[in-house]
Structure formats: structure tokens, C-alpha cells
Amino acid sequence: MKDFRFIFLRLSFYLILGILAAFNFSVPTEILIISGILIFCLFLIAYFRANRNIFPDALFGITAFLLIFYLGFSATYFNIPENQKEHFINLDSKELPDPIVSARISEELKPTAFSQRFVINAERIIGRKEKLKVKGKVLLNLSPDSTRTTILKPGMQVLVPWSPQEIKEPLNPFQFSYKDYLNELNIKRQLNIQTSELEISNIERHDLQSRSWQLREQLISDLKKYDFGENEIAIFQALILGQRREISNTLYKNYAAAGAIHILAISGLHIGILLIILNFLFRALDRIKYGKLIKAIILILLLWSFAVLTGLSASVVRAVTMFSFIAIGLQLKRKTSALNSLFLSLFILLLINPHYIFQVGFQLSYLAVFSIIVFQPLISGLFQSKIKPVDYLWKLSSVSIAAQIGVIPLSLYYFHQFPGLFLLTNLIILPFLGLLLAYGIIVILLAAINSLPPFIAELFDLILRLMNGFIEWIAGVESFVFSNIHLSLFQTLSLYLIILAILLLLRSPDYKRIYFFLISILVFQLSTFYFRKNIPASEAIIFHKSRQTIIGVKNDQNLSLYSEENLDPDFIADYVRERKLGKVKTKKIPQIMDLSTKLSLIIDTTKNYQLSNFNPEIIILRNSPKINLERIIDQLSPKEIVADGSNYNYLVKRWQETAGNKKIPFHHTGEKGAYFIKPGK
Fold it and tell me: Which keywords appear in this protein's UniProt record, sorted alphabetically (predicted)?
């Protein structure tokens, strides 16, 4: 039985290998199906052979690995849009005159300053004479129209003009890629329309998810009848109902800097605390016959009821699924039950949607819970006190520390920030988070039946205000917020290798594990050296910024920024972090520059540029100069022309056409992104 203690951990590992392989390698469908049949037959032969053998051999283990690997590969293969015949990206709808798409609203996203955003599921593309049945998610950007107000909600069927567009990559280096984020959600295209172009169908789907969303919106409406503060009601909605659209950027940044960002998104933390509370409330059932079974059923039903209350968002469904399995594991009272339950839920969720593996929330949730299960008993055992309050605080601290061990490398990789006072924040908030959840649910239920006493609402508003104030104070201690930290993917993986080595050493130290620990440190050092070696010693870059010209010249760890206007430091923060820069100096833009040994002329007026023996390799156009580009090309014979974001688009199009006729490469930062100039390029 020893070999089966962590069976789902190993199976999940094999499955993940298959998933990653499918995202990186493509095979014809016919070969995939034939190989699947062969692997399954081989597995059956190995299984029956193993049953007859007195001593097990390696064949059964190898075929089991191949089978699970194949499951991961095939589940991913058929989940990738490019491999789905009915997905809209594989259909040519250009031949349909004036096509429209019939789609369902599946999710409402946080709006931007310019538009409302929704995720829609395409169902049919409709032309004048024919209809095409399609599938696939689309990002709908709905610009407001002063002549028409439209309220959209999940479950609604809408008709909109079908003109899908590619989701753009970030125009400046190392910035957050919204395109990659949407790819992780299987969203490949976007639609940009006005409210007046949208038509709502009379057919509305009343499935569980849409009803759940409507219930949540009604509960939010009921809460707003009471005198909650603006920030308090925003935190209330996020904390209990999973709706974050009303949280201001300032409030969000405060929670991130204080190390409490996990409070604002219902995830494994909330569901785990809720499970602990429910497990405590129903502990009496353990004493009766079949009590553990009854208790497990009740716990799972209540967890899913909470998920319905929060709108059945994807993150909540994942967290509740995970803890439903853990709830069963808790009732089995075995040391390995919690870990096996955790990885069983991981296995099932990844089979359903392999794209989860790339979603940050999914990764952080599982790493945090895994780390708590593995490290919390070890950390808790380091100190014991007979004073109950002290012992309680230490155990609570051990949970927070254990969770941070699991998520810190990944948090640094994605968010580049480490809140130094996270332990203080969690020590103050976590003991009361369970009470906040319970209190908040009671407030919501009472508000829903119009029976909420004002003093109960006022008390909860006061508690939330105090919590926001505490978070703001912690975030204000800037010396303990370590930001602009860079970790490459290889550095992140090697850090987890070090954590694994430490865990093995703590459990059973021996020479082999010491060697493994030292090797893991060496791997981290090599990955750090590799990253630094790949940073160019010098380069020039023409950034993209609307209505501005920004040119950067990097030499070693120094950056000279050429700009005519004051520059927001956040604009270049990603570039400074990734290039490991120290000093940044701002200078005025000259007319002639040496950009990484490339002589460059910056044109922003209609001067006469006919100079003797002057042939710049690059011409940079800025501030929409009224020039005859064809004449300038004939005079100066440049090798390339660059237009930045300070130019009018109609002029850029005209210049691009002229450069094309002259067979001169043309780069527009508003279309192709920032322009890099490296020595020897």
C-alpha cells in the first residue's frame, strides 16, 4: 500500500507533462487516435500480465505513465481552438455579406474608462442567406452611447456585427500582456462595437450560472439600500460575493502592497476558512453512525451553495471543487488523504480544462494549499506554548508562513513585488476573516429579506472601514514594500527546487538530500547567471506613447531617456526592472543621435535636411511634421524609417505608403510596438 500513498500526485504529474507537451507540439488527429488505441491496448496487456506475476515489473508502470500522459495530451489537443473544426477561428466568414454573430453573454468583466467588457460565447454566424454554427469565446468591448442605455447580464442572447479583431500585444517591452491573459482563458478574438449596434434577443437562457449571477446582482442591489461607505461596499462585494468591479485602483494597490490581495478575490483561502467553520459547526455528526458520510455531504452542499451565492465564477468553482475533495479527505482521517484529495481535484479540473494550468489564480491556490498541508505541521512543531492565545497565534502564523513559502516564488515571478509586512497583515486579518465571512453572509441574507437592522449594517460597515484603514496604514510603510523584483521562469523553477530540497532535508536528512539541496542552489545560481548574461550591454529603444516621443539609450546599468515632457516613472518601470537598470537620466531630444552606433536623424519640422555627406541610417519622425517624405528619402537615402506615437495616424499611413513605394522598411510603434536598435543590427 506504500506505493499508493501519493498516487494522485504522481498521476497529476504525468497528466501535466502530457498537457504541456500538447501545448508545444502538434500531431495529426489520425495519428493521435491510432496511438491512443495502441497505448490503451498495451496498458490492458500490462495490467493482466501484472495480475499474474508474483513480483511486479516496470512494464505496468511505464504503460500507466503513457496512458495518463496520453490523456493529458489528447484532452489538451481537443481543447485547443485551432484543433476544433467548429471554432470560429477555423471558419472563413469573409464570404458572408455583412455577417452578424448570435452569442450568449457568459461573464461580465471589470469595465475600463472607455467601455464595458463581457465574455460572450459565439453560437452562430448569420449571413443574408446562410448560417454557420460556430463555437468559441470572444471579448466584447461595448462603447457607451449617449442615445441608448443597455444592461447586459449573463445568459442573455445578443446579436452583434461580426468583425473579430486580433487582441494586440503590448506595444512596449515587458509590459503585462492582456492578449496572453485572454489566451489562458481560451479567448482568441475581440469585438469592438457601439451600444447602438447591439441587439438583445428575446431568448434568455435560464441556466444555473445565469440565475446565480442574477441572484448575486440582486443581493448587491439589496445591500446598496443601506448606508455603506463607497470603499466598504466595494470590499463587501469582493469579500463575500466575489464582485470586484467597484474596487478603486488606489484601494486595490493598498491591499497588494500590504500583502492582503488574496482577500479581494474569493479563492482557496475563503473556501478553506469556510470549510473549517462548517467542519467545526457539524463536528457533532462524527459521533453518530454514518455521521462522517452525512457530514461530508452537508459540507459539500453548503460549499456549493456559497458558490451559487457568488455567481459561480470560474475561480470560485475551481476553489469549491478543490475543497469538496479535501472535505472528503478530512473525513477519512488519514495523513495522505488531504494530499491525495488535493491532487485528485487537480487531476479532474485539468482534464476538464487544461488551460487552467496557465492561470495564475489556479497555480497560486493549489501551491498555497499544498504548502500548508506539507509545511504547516513542520513549522507549527518548532514552537509550542501552554498559553492558549500565544499557541493560537503561533499556529495561525504557521499557516500564513506555510502558504507564503508555496506562493512567494510565483508571486515574485508574476507581480514583481513582495510585501514585507505580510505576516503582520495576516496575523491581524486572518483570525477575523472567518468571522467577517460569517457576519457578511448573515448581513446579506437579512438584507435579502428586508430584515437587516440598521445597527448590524453600521457595525459591519465600521469593521470594514477599520480594515481598510489598517491596510492603508500598512501599505503606507513603503520601506517594507519590496517592488520591481525580477525572477525569470528558470529562476522561479529553481527556487521551487530549493524548497523541495529543504522539505526533504527536514523530513529525513541524509547525504543524498544534502547533495540535492546543494545542487538546487547551484541550479538557481546558474539560472541567475544565464539571465544576466543575456541582458544586452547596450541598446537603444524608441518607446511607444500616444502624443509623446520617448527614446531610451541603455549603456550598462544606466539609462538615458530623451523626452520633451515629464515622464511617469511607472511607464518605464517594466523595462528598468527587466534590464536591471540603476540610474535613469532624462534629457532633451536632439536632432541628430547616435543610437547604438546607428546615426539617426529626428525630424519634427519642415526644415531643409539637404546636408552634404550626411546619410543617417534611421530617420525618426515625430510630432507630425508636414514634410515631403519622398524627397527626404531621395536626399538622405536612409535604411529605415520609424514613426512614433506622437504622429497623426493619417500621416503615418501616407508615410508608410511612400516608404513602401521606395522599398524602405517602415516601422510604426503604434502598430508594431517599440523599436529596438542593438549594436550591429
Answer: Cell membrane, Membrane, Transmembrane, Transmembrane helix
